[in-house]
Amino acid sequence: MSVNLLSQLLVQSGTAPELSLAQWETILGQTRKSRLLGRLAQHFLSQQWLISVPQQPRQYLEGALRLIDRQHHEVRWEVQCIRQALKDVDTPVVMLKGAAYFVAGLPPRDGRLFSDIDIMIRRDRIAEVESALYRCGWISEERDAYNQHYYREWMHEIPPLRHVRRNTVIDVHHTITPPTSRFKVDGAELLQHIQAVDARGDLFILNPPDMVLHSAVHLFQEGEFGHGLRDLLDLKDLLEHFQQQADFWPHLFQRASELKLQIPLFHALFHIQRLFDVAAPAQWTQQVAECAPAAPARIAMAWLLGLALRPDHPSCDTHWTGLARWLLYLRSHFLRMPLHLVVPHLLRKAYMGYFPEKNL
Amino acid sequence: MIISQLDFSELAARLRGSGLRIRTGSINFRIISSLPSIAQGIHLLYPDYPLVEEDAFIDFTVEVNKATGMRRWLRPQVKFTYEGVEPFGALPVAQAFPMLEWAMNWCISTQSHHFLSLHAAVLEREGCAVILPAPPGSGKSTLCAGLASRGWRLLSDELTLISLKDGLITPLGRPISLKNQSLEVIRQFYPDAVLNQVTHDTSKGSISHLKIPPGHVAQLEQRARPRWVVFPKYVPDSKAELTLRSKANSLLELGRNSFNYHVLGQAGFELLADVISASDCYDFRYSQLEDAVTLFDELALKEHP
Known about the structure:
The structure holds 2 protein chains of 2 kinds.
Chain A: H1 3-11, H2 21-33, H3 37-46, H4 55-85, E1 94-96, H5 97-103, E2 117-120, H6 126-135, E3 138-140, H7 145-154, E4 161-163, E5 169-173, H8 187-191, E6 195-196, E7 204-205, H9 208-221, H10 228-242, H11 248-259, H12 262-276, H13 285-290, H14 295-308, H15 321-336, H16 339-354
Parallel strand pairs in A: 1-7, 2-5
Antiparallel strand pairs in A: 1-2, 3-4, 4-5, 6-7
Chain B: H1 8-16, E1 20-24, E2 27-32, H2 36-45, E3 60-66, E4 77-81, E5 91-92, H3 96-111, E6 115-125, E7 128-133, H4 140-148, E8 153-156, E9 159-163, E10 169-170, E11 176-179, H5 180-189, E12 199-202, E13 205-210, H6 214-218, E14 225-234, E15 241-244, H7 247-256, H8 261-278, E16 280-286, H9 289-303
Parallel strand pairs in B: 2-3, 7-14, 14-16
Antiparallel strand pairs in B: 1-2, 3-4, 4-5, 6-7, 6-8, 6-9, 9-10, 11-13, 12-13, 15-16
Helix pairs in contact in B: 1-2, 4-5, 4-9, 7-8
């Protein structure tokens, strides 16, 4: 089952597709692995295609809808708890990624399962935020001293925090990429342009161009592509939604230039066009091309990402998929850290991977 | 076509190749394994189960095979792979067959949200089902095996699946897992018992699986309505005794013994409420299996005199 069939299935409309039971089996496998089952189910629901799905696979689509419904219920509560915990800390609380789509009611929220909640706060308030969250029951996930050091010193982040009772995880950031990264962005610059979610004024999201750029840089700088296809779909949803606003595209290119994020934006637009046939309006073609990296990098990345963005499922793997993913994993580290830090870090991670019990 | 109509080499070949397609109750599995103990276990315990046709839907594909890597010469291990991922850690290769059974249960309990699934045994008599929820060590499996050998139809020894649509219980009907002293008790109680070879040193002790009577397999498409919820507890030297217990408390306890109650939210709660209001709820203590079966038979007799 080619990945293009799955991508088409997720975005097409009109008459219900006719799929054999064997095809359904494969689709369920691919979507389970790439965390797209909920999205597929939601799409079938909104297109009114569920009735045409054979009973056996349909049970799993309906099950996914139940799971999502339940989870959204829980996320709503979680956001409430976070708001309450941080109300006295002198910083805006900015929801990022999935949590942002959720609180702002943006299209990627539909059919999406959430794992961690990501928030962004003022860099100089990290300690207070950590304390406030600790008082309300969130404690550090990370027990290993080396990993703590990695987070705090090199990534300038605190490790994820897990709530002792609810078992939910919150990831606290002060910017959208690591400060050691090639694509570093100053959080203060982003905080200048945030938007309040509602009249209470205590919860924010990034403005549309920043949200799109965050999604792009996160996807193409990350080493893990387990849900790459899902993240790309989220990005596509955002673009289709925001471009209804006047001047969205010029603002997007201008902001990409200001934050020096043209290259991730280019990669994102390239693959969204390739997989979903969604592109920037024709008058912006030149602008898009100007965002591209030099030809060798552009060609190599197109190939690597083309493979890595397939659902991470045996039915989609080629001989090269494993290599592509590994190269991108390496690349992500080089992007995030300078060489003299990366090499010892990766060696250590390999060692810890081999002897996990010693590091508990 | 049923499993026993394949000769052993054909069975093993399918397992090694594209997979053995087998139907257990309402769930179609494809099982992939090159391990002899898996082929032998299936040959012994699943002869009466139907094979699934080539073009039919497969709910879950489970692969249980030897782990590769450095350790394979020192202490061979077996791993369960599902959709390219390993949900459990690797286990010693001797535990391959129990691992297969756990893997099949895991697939159902984590993904079948069209059912409310309970960690409970369930058996049926004349259309009425008795649900036996219980934590490990309460004697539930011994009781379940005892009842299944004496006229109670086995629906499942581990997973009670209650349909969200109509509240009926769907059988799974797979082999009954028995541990430790249970094995000896059942060998005495049920002389015709067909038991797989015993696996020692698992996290639960010594384990084996008991084949269910062929008549039960033939009826796996027949569902049952819940009628009794009985919480068993093995208490040494005690007399078999059923005591009525609070329905409200029983509802909460069933919720605690459920795999996906938290996913189903209000629908799950309402379904449990329906199950409880239709059922008499009891605490049950026993030490002698013979007495236990007698008491359960009396319960059934009261329902259908």
